[in-house]
Design brief:
alpha/beta, 34% helix, globular, disordered N terminus, disordered C terminus
């Protein structure tokens, strides 16, 4: 059973690493980023040690693009019996820095989730689409290893913030798109689909993005290997909202449920970016909830953060139909939370 006091402490800790343990406040996303990343990653890396009953399996190599491994950390409840629903966390950091060590979903392992925290190639190593190729390879790897790690391959959810929000939104909107798949990274016979997505303030349409800010311009030049004006097709490929299409007559909706959370004072990713994705998902018949957090910038702090963490937690509990661990007396009395596959 989740210790509420411990969760409160961890939520406060994880507020500082919600963007991947890398991004300082919104007005200076990359200022002093290296030292901030190092300090916050160390704190995030110790978080699992604060939770009793959590088994941590760190630095699992899920692919070796260009001959160099990319890794993920996996956290599972000790003694879990049935296949576990999985939350996949993708960190932020402007696609150029960050750490899988700072994983804000970690406290929810004791709710009965498995949690994976994924690293991916940064833009100093490879431009887009390497980043989404890696994320999809991680999903396929985890699905291929589902039996070994006691995961339910039909209950995978993805959550990310900022650059990570962008990448998880692509996970949810590019099913069947070979250019985004990166099948050569392995386990191509397995699906890279996720059953639900939580996008925290990720860019969704680079063709309408204001890239004039110096800090934004530098990140996007790194992501695309040039200015958007020179990389239109690549920018379109990287835009989650532009992949969302209304289903043709008789076709089923092909996008998973989304929770999109955005601050209305965000100076890096304008509110319009999240609204556009929500509007297109709605037009396509996909379930989605858009939450605009009044007064919030590029991230959440204090009471706002606690409220939004709880919102995400409830979203995954509903969509992935988690059953509390049998060690929880209240869970035994209440019985299972749901049956079947997530909608």
């Amino acid at each position: 059973m989740l210790d509420v006091r411990r969760f409160g402490f961890l939520a406060a800790l994880m507020c500082s690493v919600a963007l991947g343990g890398t991004e300082p406040p919104a007005t200076a996303p990359d200022a002093d980023g290296g030292r901030v990343a190092e300090a916050q990653a160390r704190r995030g890396g110790r978080a699992a040690d604060l939770l009793r009953g959590v088994k941590a399996i760190r630095d699992i190599e899920y692919a070796t693009p260009d001959g160099r491994p990319v890794r993920l950390d996996l956290y599972v409840p000790e003694g879990a019996k049935g296949p576990l629903p999985l939350i996949i966390w993708v960190h932020g950091g402007g696609w150029k820095m960050g750490s899988k060590a700072g994983c804000p979903a970690l406290p929810w392992v004791t709710d009965g989730f498995a949690v994976a925290s994924v690293e991916y190639r940064f833009t100093n190593r490879a431009p887009f689409p390497a980043q989404i190729h890696d994320c999809k390879a991680a999903v396929r790897f985890l699905r291929a290893k589902a039996k070994e790690y006691n995961l339910d391959p039909d209950r995978f959810g993805a959550w990310g913030a900022s650059a990570g929000g962008h990448l998880v939104a692509l996970l949810g909107t590019t099913g069947g798109n070979a250019e985004c798949e990166g099948a050569e990274l392995g386990n191509a016979e397995f699906s890279s689909a996720v059953q639900c997505v939580c996008d925290w303030f990720g860019p969704t349409d680079f063709l309408s993005y204001n890239a004039d800010q110096a800090e934004v311009s530098g990140m996007l030049i790194g992501l695309f290997g040039g200015r958007i004006s020179q990389k239109q097709e690549l920018a379109r490929l990287a835009s989650p909202a532009l992949h969302v299409k209304k289903p043709a007559g008789g076709e089923a909706v092909k996008y998973p449920p989304f929770l999109i959370v955005q601050g209305d004072k965000d100076l890096l990713v304008p509110e319009r970016q999240s609204r556009l994705l929500a509007e297109r998902l709605k037009d396509a018949g996909a379930e989605n909830e858009l939450v605009i957090v009044a007064g919030a910038g590029h991230g959440f702090m204090g009471d706002q953060a606690r409220a939004e963490f709880q919102r995400v937690r409830e979203f995954f509990k509903k969509r992935l139909k988690v059953d509390p661990p049998p060690s929880d007396p209240a869970a035994k009395a209440a019985g299972p939370s749901g049956e079947g596959k997530p909608g």
